[in-house]
Amino acid sequence: MELTVNGAGRSVAAGASVADLVRDLVAQPRGVAVAVNGEVVPRTGWPARALRDGDRVEVLTAAQGG
Amino acid sequence: MPFELGGETFTSRLILGTGGAANLHVLEQAIRASGSELVTLALRRVGTAPGSTGGLLELLDRCGVRLLPNTAGCHTATEAVKVARLARDAFDTDWVKLEVIGDERTLLPDGVELLRAAEELVSDGFTVLPYTSDDPVLARRLADVGCAAVMPAGSPIGSGLGIGNPHHIRLIRQGVDVPVILDAGIGTASDAALAMELGCDGVLLASAVTRAADPVAMATAMRYAVEAGRLAAQAGRIERRFHALASTPDEGRPEL
């Protein structure tokens, strides 16, 4: 299925969860937060949250900032 | 005297922002030189913004500082509240430097959205440290809704213009019971000292250190400036007077 991840198109296997996607993107999930279609998905809910075709996903992490 | 903020006790009254540092090595040295115990960071898409390619959290761990995530770049209360909740999930802290920007050129806050976001986050259990303008009325409203501090801008973020309206900063200090932290606009050590002399309880700055030619030297200067300003504020300065007042006595002057 096709997702939009951090503003860019990305294909993932059907049935993938948020946890699967995070594992693909970052080496370790510490300091990472996820929103799907503009709604926060808390870390504890990542494994159970199935992604759907067309979902807009933001995968965020620590960055320098004032 | 230790600095109490959000129920925690700090020795340092200098809060350092991590934005603008050329690299993580310089940033780490600057944090250590500043003596800061509370350090801001942002939340951005993985692998894009500086620091987001990894290593920033490990660095902050090594420095032993407490994290203060910001909501930089947000323009509405709705957006800022979401970013605060994402940051809480990412960094395991309910502290937030709340920023809701209302103007692109000056990056000054949108007071209406800021107050709405502050209210919602306080009721959700956050320790809210709002970046606000130097408006004493808005500062009081933010304190009234339960913010743990108010953080007025001295002048626009990154401008280095110092404290544009010292009178308002003093009025803010007089008008709220929570800590007042001068946030934004600091250019050099004397600006930070002035903030403390005006009665502020702390200073938050990033660019003044991270974008200085020698960030580590400037971080050291800021550390001393905040301490010096605090001491001077407590010491009770002399009154300003129009004419001179000799410090050497006239008595016993020889007739020659």
Describe what is shown at a glance.
The complex is a heterodimer of chains A (66) and B (256). With 66 residues, chain A is mainly β.
What do these coordinates show?
The complex is a heterodimer of chains A (66) and B (256). Chain A is mainly β and 66 residues long. In chain A, 12% of the residues lie in helices and 36% in strands. In chain A, strands 2-1-5-3-4 form a five-stranded mixed sheet, covered by helices on one side. Chain B is α/β, with parallel strands linked by helices. β5 of chain A pairs antiparallel with β4 of chain B, so a sheet runs across the interface. Chain A: Pfam families: ThiS.
What is the number of E strands of chain B? 10
Beta-strand level of the residues of chain A, as a percent range?
35-45%
In total, how many beta strands of chain A?
A: 5
What structural class results from the helix and strand content of chain B? Answer: alpha/beta
Overall pLDDT level of chain B = 96
The unreliable regions of chain A are none
Mean pLDDT over the residues of chain A: 95
InterPro entries (chain A): Beta-grasp_dom_sf (IPR012675), Mopterin_synth/thiamin_S_b (IPR016155), Thi_S (IPR010035), ThiS/MoaD-like (IPR003749)
Protein name (chain A): Sulfur carrier protein ThiS
